[in-house]
What we know:
Layout lengths: L1 H12 L6 H5 L1 H14 L5 H31 L42 H16 L4 E3 L9 E4 L9 E11 L3 E6 L11 E6 L1 E7 L5 E7 H14 L10 H17 L11 H6 L17 H8 L1 E2 L17 E2 L22 H6 L9
Antiparallel strand pairs: 1-2, 2-3, 3-6, 4-5, 6-7, 8-9
Amino acid sequence: xxxxxxxxxxxxxxxxxxxxxxxxxxxxxxxxxxxxxxxxxxxxxxxxxxxxxxxxxxxxxxxxxxxxxxxxxxxxxxxxxxxxxxxxxxxxxxxxxxxxxxxxxxxxxxxxxxxxxxxxxxxxxxxxxxxxxxxxxxxxxxxxxxxxxxxxxxxxxxxxxxxxxxxxxxxxxxxxxxxxxxxxxxxxxxxxxxxxxxxxxxxxxxxxxxxxxxxxxxxxxxxxxxxxxxxxxxxxxxxxxxxxxxxxxxxxxxxxxxxxxxxxxxxxxxxxxxxxxxxxxxxxxxxxxxxxxxxxxxxxxxxxxxxxxxxxxxxxxxxxxxxxxxxxxxxxxxxxxxxxxxxxxxxxxxxxxxxxxxxxx
Length: 361
């Protein structure tokens, strides 16, 4: 307030024409300014210095507290009231994203795809459009209210890498698993995420949009996306795979979704047989990666192969401890043969007796 009135007063003294509202209250502003300046007299200078010193001491502490709160909010798994809203409509389609607990997300079995015609191509194009507009990497038919055995995904940056998967089967799961955070468009909340264990690689069989049979071995992020969408065709959500700690943390968001669903046909739980048969099994507790002590420890960890993919311990599931692979002795360095050009028909090699690469190490 002090600086505000000082600026107004200086405006008058410089001869600048102020706005009519300020001109009308000139005398009032001058009186207020005088009273404020008078309150900061010489007798109060010591008190003011004490306040300035107090602010100087507390300001760094307050800044550290703000930074800590920002860091805590970014890494915390506690769920706030903010929920990620899916679009209510999408361009070029009448489909919308089915959200938990709509029955299409839990209904099994889904109808197999038998007709690979223009209607299927159009439908999958719409699914890809919805996926891209929702900023997702995969979308299954149950997520748009269709109980059909098809999903689309794109685990890469280029749209040319988009895949249409019909009637899929996962033939083999790798014993090694990778634990990462996962969320889902059908759960609608950015905060409704948790740790999910997925096989590092999988062997798959499916038909593409043309009905052609495809066999592929997928790994890393593409394997994770495929397994996530494959779960949708089995009535499984990533929430079903969360460890108990993450399920408890996500319960607030789940309750909000339940409260928003007004119909009486809600399906909250997966099919019992599908839940028992799903692979890999859910984590029994949150996975904490081991601390890296030194290079020797890192090499030992790499040499440990556990059934759960984390080395010894197994992250609470699988067969438990890993088996250490014996370190192989390095073979002695073999003496490399020098090409001397004896077998070459090129006269240039005959003259020198050695090739240009003979002296290269």
